[in-house]
Amino acid sequence: MAMLRLNISCICLLGASLTMNDKEVKSTPPHLGPKLGFLLNDLSKMVTQTWDSRMKHVDLTRSQWRAIGHVSRSPGITQIDLADALGVGRMAVTGIVDRLEKKKLLTRKLDNADRRVKKVFCTAKAKSLLPSMQDVGDEVLKEMTENLTPHQLQQLINSLTKMHQNGLKLLEPENRNK
Asked: Would you say residue 91 lies in a domain?
């Protein structure tokens, strides 16, 4: 199961299949059309909705558990960078962090180099939630990939990793306006 232990932020990518219309893809089609994008988006929603329903007992919103996940992977992340990672505005991330501080799950500290900058950290209480968050994520992914052979699963992970790397390149400033 170690192969399925992926970080929560990438959970949305895993679930896409290497099959299209029950035929294994041997090479990249010249034109994928909207199918791949819709498939990845739909799978992302399915995984997230399933994960949400299984984590209801923790009493966290999707934005809150996503914030905890990002902060746990990047301790000391600035609020501005957290807002970018979550895809929300600065005001929205302030509210998210405020509520998580009240729940004693996150804490803010001023940056020693620039006291205007607030860095965000997980508390021990948040850290204690991370294993159960990861376990639920692993369980959902296991169920979503149960019909894949180990070889297909490894191909999927390799392919999605390459797509992720290509996506990161597309986000670089010099590539944004192509």
From this structure: yes
C-alpha separations of 12 from 63, 65, 92 in Å: 14, 14, 22
Q: Is residue 68 domain-resident?
A: yes
Domain CATH number, residue 105: 1.10.10.10
Q: In terms of Cα–Cα distance, which of 41, 81, 82, 42 is closest to 63?
A: 82
SS3 121: strand
Residue 77 resides in a domain: yes
From the number of C-beta atoms within 10 Å of its C-beta (0-12, 13-18, 19+), residue 45 rates as exposed
| C-alpha closest to that of 156 among 148, 165, 147, 168 | 148
The number of distinct structural domains making up the chain is: 1
pLDDT digits (tens, 9 = 90+) for 81-139: 999 999 999 999 999 999 999 999 999 999 888 888 899 999 999 999 999 989 998 99
By residue range, what is the domain housing residue 86?
Answer: 56-129
171 within domain boundaries:
no
Tens digit of pLDDT for each residue in 11-67? 333 333 333 444 444 455 556 666 888 899 999 999 989 988 988 888 888 889 999
| Residue with token string 């399925």 | 4
